Amino acid sequence: xxxxxxxxxxxxxxxxxxxxxxxxxxxxxxxxxxxxxxxxxxxxxxxxxxxxxxxxxxxxxxxxxxxxxxxxxxxxxxxxxxxxxxxxxxxxxxxxxxxxxxxxxxxxxxxxxxxxxxxxxxxxxxxxxxxxxxxxxxxxxxxxxxxxxxxxxxxxxxxxxxxxxxxxxxxxxxxxxxxxxxxxxxxxxxxxxxxxxxxxxxxxxxxxxxxxxxxxxxxxxxxxxxxxxxxxxxxxxx
Length: 238
Hints:
alpha+beta; 2 domains; about 35% strand
């Protein structure tokens, strides 16, 4: 069985392969049953950096940017990074989840901000402001041509120590397109403007998948500008 791996983990996979290979050779020489320990670590590293193909469950919706558990659903106001009334949905990724992050909606990258910080437990809402983070601003367009701001935040956790944001200013994104990852346990937040929200489709404690699970259905006046036929052929086939 072939495990699809993300390009964001090639350095870690190569390092784990060398270190675990050396440890396995030493263990086999000293006491062969111990070989299972470095082998298990190597398999875990491969599994952590897995990158399965995904396609959204629905078209007319904002899709989860992360695998994990919804830990909070909170209203936000004009003073927030969103700059208007909306909803913030926080998702906690454990060290066993797929960690590749994806765009929740089609749009244009307008700004990327990196903020230094600590490494508090990412399951807690206060981690949103205390921890190291990368904030991605997307410009999205409703069916009436009105422009809205959408915010995706990658937030480091207690174990996470590196945020990868694989984007550039002006880049056009499709729904479910890969945007980076946070390595080894973390939190991802999505901030959605109130005027585009038709229905919040998840609740706290619910498990979701990046690029697949519906977080919010659009209001009837708004529809996404891309569709399944706009996505790469390999995505459609999964």
